[in-house]
Amino acid sequence: MDTWQMIRTERAALVDALAALPASAWDRPSLCAGWTVRDVVAHMIATASMTPPRFFAKLIGSGFRFDAMVRKDIAAIIADRTDVDLVELLRTRVDTRTAPPGPSLSWLGETIVHGEDVFRALDGYRDHPINHLIAVADFYKNSDMLIGAKSRVAGVTLAATDADWRHGTGPEANGPMIALVMVMTGRSAALDDLTGDGVTTLRARC
Description:
Layout: H1 3-19, H2 37-48, H3 52-61, H4 66-78, H5 83-91, H6 104-122, H7 130-140, H8 149-152, E1 157-160, E2 166-167, E3 172-175, H9 177-184, H10 198-203
Parallel strand pairs: 1-3
Antiparallel strand pairs: 1-2
Helix pairs in contact: 1-5, 1-6, 2-4, 2-5, 2-6, 6-7, 7-9
């Protein structure tokens, strides 16, 4: 399946899930340190609205401070919008293929991981097509781009309990694919969903 079709499927399912959230959920903390659920959704809208030229222009305008650029974009998206407005704005981005510079698999990962930054923090993981999770895990295992996944899982065997997928050598960390993906991106909460001697090694790196 085309990666952008996977992204479209994930975005559509996420928007429907966000639309069903109670109003009280939007101010709760996500798995992204310092970000509420509302902040994560705003960030996803900003990312899905970005193009490489706009990304570099915004980065230059923020003095090459990536975090400052992201915070500014979140504030601009949230300003004067209700949570219902944010859901509908994200819905308008479901079919778009715009993104900052980077491989399309990184944006599939961004959609899945940030969605779970919301839902793992609230109620637990949502369901994802297993081929989407495997595609993202196969990308992350070989990449240190931005999030340092390759280095984070070095020397540990990751073994899925719900798919025929393994990676690495060393002590094992076993669990569902979505938890492995989240740990690869440094989400320490997902370590509670894994078992095995490798979890100790990963806990020191998340």
